[in-house]
Structure formats: C-alpha cells, structure tokens
Design brief:
This is LysM domain-containing protein. Residues 116-163, 180-224 form the LysM domain. InterPro entries: LysM (IPR018392), LysM_dom_sf (IPR036779). It comes from Sorghum bicolor. The chain has 373 residues and is an alpha+beta fold. Among the domains are: 30-116 and 165-227, no CATH class; 248-326, no CATH class. Helices cover 25% and strands 23% of the residues. The chain has helices at 7-22, 62-69, 74-80, 126-133, 140-147, 190-196, 201-207, 342-372; strands at 33-34, 44-51, 97-106, 109-112, 117-119, 160-162, 177-183, 221-227, 248-252, 257-261, 269-272, 285-286, 289-290, 294-296, 301-311, 317-326. A six-stranded mixed sheet has the order 1-4-3-2-7-8. A three-stranded antiparallel sheet has the order 9-10-11. β14 and β15 (301-311) form a beta hairpin. α1 (7-22) runs antiparallel to α8 and α6 (190-196) crosses α7 (201-207). The longest helix is centred in the C-terminal third of the chain and has 31 residues, at 342-372. The chain is globular and about 65 Å long. The structure holds 2-acetamido-2-deoxy-beta-D-glucopyranose (7 copies). One 2-acetamido-2-deoxy-beta-D-glucopyranose (NAG) is lined by residues 36, 170-171.
Length: 373
C-alpha cells in the first residue's frame, strides 16, 4: 500500500468527482452561440432575435419594444417583421416580434453588440431582469458575467447593465444565414421548430451542439439559422453583407432602396423607395431598365434589373445589374440547406462513450477507496 496516496484525501477527491458526475450544475444553462467568424467585416452582422413578452405582462406597443432594445429606427423594426411602413409606433407589437440588432463575435461566441442595456430599478433582481423583462433570452449568469457583477442578488438601483443576448454571424454549411435567437416555448420540438423556420432538424442540432432532439427543453435559447434570399450584391458594395430572411424586408442605400425576401423565389426583390430618404437618391438603372423592372425574354426566362449594392467612394451611387431567372422553375420547393452532421453526431457519440467509460472508472476506483476507509 506504500506507493498509494493517503486514503483520506483520495476518498475526498473521489467524493468530489462522484458529486460532479451525479449532480449536473443546477440553474439555467447559459446559452452561448458559437461565433468564430473573424474576418473584420464578418465578425459583426445583423442578428435577429425573437421577443415574446413574458407571460402575465400586457402586450407592449411597438414603441415600447423599440425602447426596451434601444432600436434606432421604428422603420427597421417594421421591416424586420414584414409590417407595412405605415404601421404607427403605438400599434400593439405582434408576439413574437423579430428584433434586429448588431451581433459581435468575440472569443468564439457571439453576443449582441453593446445593446440592449437596462437600468436597474428598485426591487429588481438579475433573474427578474433576465426572465421577466428580457423573456429568458439571457440567463442571470450571462448578465452577471458580462457586467462583472459578483453577487447577482445585489445590484445597485440605477446601475446600467448590458444584456448580452446570444447571436452568431457564422455561415452554416458554407451558406450565409441569419441566426435567429429563439426561446423554445412549452411543448416545442426540434422537428416543429425546423418546420416552422424552413430548416432541418440536423441543422438545428448541429448548430446548437445538441446530441439529439430529446435534449431540447422549454425555455432553452436556441440558435435557428434562417435561410436568406440570394442577391446580386457586389462584394465591393458597402452593404455587401446584407442578409434578408423570408418574411422580412430591409431599407438600405440610405433608405433609397427597399429589399424584400420571399420564400416563393428566395431572391432579393429590391425597389426604389419613393420619398423615404431624407436626402437625394441617385437613379439606379441597368441600361434602359430601372431598378426592380422585370421583362420576359422568352416563355421561361425573365430578366430583372436587380440591386447590386451601393458605394460612396467618389460619390453616393446605387448599383444595379441585370439578372436572369428561370420562371418555369420558380415556385419549386427551396433547396434544403445541406449540413454534414453525421461526422458531428459520431463525434458526440464518441465523446459520450468516453465520458461514460471515464465515469465508470472513477466510480469503481472510488468505491474501492471508500471501502478501505
Ligand atoms: C471586475 O471586478 C473586479 C473586482 O471588483 C476587478 O478587479 C476587475 O477589474 C473588473 N473587471 C472588469 C472587466 O470590469
Ligand atoms: C468554428 O470553429 C470550429 C472549431 O474551431 C470549426 O469546427 C468550425 O467549422 C468553425 N465554424 C466556422 C463557421 O468557421
Ligand atoms: C405562457 O402561457 C401560455 C398560455 O397560457 C402557456 O401555454 C405557456 O406555457 C406559458 N409559458 C410559460 C413560460 O409559462
Ligand atoms: C454585373 O454582373 C457581371 C456578370 O455577372 C459582373 O461581372 C459585374 O461585376 C456585375 N456588376 C456589379 C456592379 O455588380
Ligand atoms: C415565409 O414567410 C411567410 C410570411 O411570414 C410565411 O407564411 C411562410 O410560411 C414562410 N415560408 C417559409 C418557407 O419559411
Ligand atoms: C420600371 O421602374 C420604374 C422606377 O421604379 C417604374 O416607375 C416603372 O413603372 C417600371 N416599369 C415597369 C414596366 O415595371
Ligand atoms: C457619402 O460620403 C459623404 C462624404 O464622406 C458623406 O457625407 C455622405 O453622408 C455619404 N453618403 C452616404 C449615402 O453614405
């Protein structure tokens, strides 16, 4: 027995390991979306967040949600939700509402950049802010860590907190996507969520590093990659990273152009806006055609003067380019986003297996030690 360590500390160590294995960490699991895009422009993007007011709170107005998330523009909120531009700020917010915020990747994880912030009121706890105000989009642990709060039960009234909502800018299977931050509702399933957002179960599981669909729990903050419409936007344009998912539109080129995305074509549909921009809008043309004009060249083919981005190097210019599309193929089911998840699943299975073997070893060794005591 001489070479063996003293039994007392060893059994303590074993008890510690056993406890670790037996009791998973209590409390909500902090959501962190993988976000390892590092190229200067790719490391920030527009994130989309699903906000459903917490149960028991009155339906807020659009203006109230805009204030909660410090959104700079009412129009941008309407655009993200595909609502008509005439919708007034006093209109009740549809639930859930889509909120577009800048996302920043840093250290392999993404969080909304600097916004939203929240000023602590009398009687607030971090958990009440996380779940009661921000509808579970963050955990109190996330808020505490992001704001260097050592005791989550003691936050000073008036203290300004940054709410780091998880987000991502990473392409999925080489395809650009918009990552949608979604709180799983009661009764939600991976299959149901995949169907609702036109993606696949495999994609959701892979992106969220989940072993299988059964791992999904209500209240979990899920990363749902949304397919974005294809476009002719030039890689040198200022708005080259413009990604618009189905059911929404954006105002770009200094509000001179409005682009919508519909799952019937999966191609960005851009038109000049009339009278929306506060400044001069240069004409956007492809030869004789104006931006947004379409003409059919044959029974199956049509050409469109498509939006190609805007530049402002010498002067503000809106680019446009002729694109051809096969109208006979339009309306066919969209191509599913391929994700090579089998390798990923294998890896997970292997990890779980090694974990199990390791656990068994610890238990056996520990039982041996404990019996010696
Ligand atoms: C967090 O708080 C500790 C102790 O109060 C302090 O030393 C540290 O500099 C703080 N970090 C940040 C990022 O504010
Ligand atoms: C992010 O990093 C991981 C591990 O380094 C890698 O497997 C993955 O492909 C990366 N994702 C992207 C979108 O670059
Ligand atoms: C909110 O209320 C709805 C309907 O009353 C219920 O189905 C849902 O489970 C509730 N959600 C939470 C998080 O309590
Ligand atoms: C227009 O399309 C052509 C061919 O696809 C491409 O070479 C050109 O760069 C495009 N122009 C702009 C402004 O995007
Ligand atoms: C696209 O959005 C519309 C309206 O928001 C919705 O009815 C439709 O089901 C969506 N289609 C896909 C494929 O996501
Ligand atoms: C072409 O676009 C211009 C400017 O948007 C519009 O006034 C005109 O009606 C369009 N013509 C056709 C045939 O769509
Ligand atoms: C273009 O650049 C000029 C000078 O830098 C700036 O004043 C103007 O606001 C820019 N216009 C747009 C649409 O970005």
């Amino acid at each position: 027995m001489a070479p063996l360590p003293a039994p007392a500390p060893a059994s303590l160590l074993c008890l510690f390991f056993l406890c670790l294995l037996a009791a998973p960490c209590p409390g909500a699991r902090a959501a962190r979306f993988a976000c390892n895009a590092t190229a200067p422009r790719a490391s920030t993007c527009q994130a989309l967040i699903s906000y459903a007011p917490p149960n028991g709170t009155a339906t807020p107005t659009l203006a109230a949600v805009r204030a909660l998330f410090q959104l700079r523009s009412h129009r941008a909120l309407l655009a993200a939700n595909g609502l008509p531009l005439s919708t007034p700020p006093t209109a009740p917010a549809p639930a859930p509402l889509r909120v577009r915020l800048p996302c920043l990747c840093s250290g392999g994880a993404g969080a909304t950049f600097q916004r939203p912030t929240y000023r602590v009121r009398a009687g607030d706890t971090l958990d009440a802010v996380a779940r009661g105000v921000f509808a579970g989009l963050v955990t109190y642990q996330d808020i505490a860590a992001a704001n260097n709060v050592s005791d989550p039960n003691r936050v000073a009234v008036g203290q300004q907190l940054w709410i780091p909502v998880p987000c991502s800018c990473d392409p999925v299977a080489g395809q650009p996507v918009v990552h949608f931050t979604y709180v799983v509702p009661t009764g939600g399933s991976v299959a149901g969520i995949a169907q609702e957002f036109s993606t696949t179960e495999e994609t959701i599981l892979a992106v969220n590093k989940m072993a299988d669909s059964k791992a999904l729990v209500a209240g979990q903050v899920l990363d749902v990659p949304l397919r974005a419409c294809g476009s002719a936007i030039s890689s040198t344009a200022i708005d080259r990273n413009l990604l618009v998912p189905n059911g929404s539109y954006v105002l770009t080129a200094n509000n001179c152009v409005m682009c919508g995305c519909s799952s019937s074509t999966w191609q960005l549909d851009c038109q000049p806006t009339q009278g929306l921009s506060s400044s001069f809008c240069p004409a956007a043309k492809c030869g004789d055609m104006f931006l947004g004009n379409t003409s059919s060249t044959s029974s199956c083919e049509s050409t469109t003067c498509s939006y190609a981005g805007y530049t402002n190097t010498t002067s503000f210019a809106i680019l446009a380019n002729v694109t051809t599309s096969n109208v006979c193929n339009a309306g066919m089911s969209p191509v599913a986003q391929p994700v090579h998840s089998s390798a990923f699943r294998l890896e997970r299975a292997w990890l779980r297996w090694t974990e199990l073997v390791f656990s068994l070893h610890v238990v056996l060794v520990c039982l041996g030690y404990l019996r010696q005591d």
